[in-house]
Amino acid sequence: MKNIVKIKGTKSGVIVMLDKESTYEELTEAVTEKFRSAASFLGNARVTVKFEGKTLSDLEKFKLIDIISENTDLDIICITDDD
What we know:
By secondary structure, this protein is α/β, with parallel strands linked by helices. It has helices at 24-42, 58-71; strands spanning 5-9, 13-18, 46-52, 75-80. A 4-stranded mixed beta sheet has the order 1-2-3-4, covered by helices on one side.
């Protein structure tokens, strides 16, 4: 399986880069696995999260935030956008 989810750290948080061609279901599975395997590296910081790549509805973003929260100790304080 190709790397359809990438995590990039910034000063204030995390950018989650999502493959535009993948389905939402594929992305949820990949986000689950990616954050589960990176949990110890990410620690328990307070972070913002930004999604890039695939366009998501607000509901889809909130579901991904739930997945990240369930699989890490990150304290997600908000979702950021470009606009």
